[in-house]
Specification:
The chain has 205 residues and is of the alpha/beta class. 34% of the residues lie in helices and 18% in strands. Its EC number is 3.1.3.-.
Length: 205
């Protein structure tokens, strides 16, 4: 049985201000608070004594920084994987998070599924994440994948065979910065051990 850990990157200034980040945000760095979050997440994962931990990060700098802190705690390196990056929000970049507080049918991509005008749909994101996660799992060990908020929601819908609109309605897969999801399973399906666990941050999230 395989174990898979999914982690949202640590806080950035845009996250603190609750503003959607577009593709132009790829070079953005984590904040001082984000650095503390990443270290705490790394220590929490190191305490699990995972066999053969392998840390993966999206191509965005904030994910790489978070993955680096986790890898340091685990005594390993970081592999950057194409396909783990955040959903492209297109023309929604720069809008407040509150703009997302609507039903999924109000946010539609050209292909008819949840997604953003000028950006990606969740179908497209699920497709690229499927390839990236398969690549990480094929390398063996215990994958710890550092990605992004919307991308992680799409990934969990893909892995658990849940309609994205349903997950969006109750935000069951929403992750705070450095929140950890743990799954067990493999080709026959995945079982949730914990979802979006941010206990390592204590009350000072």
């Amino acid at each position: 049985m395989s174990r898979l850990f999914l982690v949202r990157h640590a806080e950035t200034e845009h996250n603190r201000r609750k503003v959607l980040q577009g593709q132009a945000s790829a070079p953005n760095v984590i904040s001082a608070a984000g650095e503390r979050q990443a270290r705490a997440c790394g220590l929490a994962l190191a305490a699990l004594g995972l066999p053969g931990p392998r840390v993966y990060a999206s191509t965005y700098r904030r994910a790489g920084q978070t993955a680096g802190a986790i890898a340091d705690a685990l005594g390993t390196g970081v592999t950057v994987l194409e396909g783990l990056q955040e959903m492209d929000v297109g023309s929604w970049a720069g809008r407040p998070y509150s703009a997302l507080e609507v039903s999924a049918d109000r946010i539609r991509h050209e292909d008819g599924s949840f997604g953003f005008v000028g950006g990606e749909s969740e179908r497209q994101v699920r497709a690229r994440l499927r390839v990236a996660l398969q690549g990480a799992l094929a390398r063996g060990g215990t994958p710890i994948v550092v990605s992004h908020g919307l991308a992680l929601q799409a990934a969990l819908c893909e892995l658990l065979d849940v309609p994205f609109d349903d997950a969006w309605a109750d935000q069951r897969y929403a992750h705070a910065n450095t929140a950890v999801t743990e799954l067990e399973g493999g080709a026959g399906g995945w079982r949730v051990v914990r979802v979006a666990d941010a206990g390592h941050l204590g009350s000072g999230r």
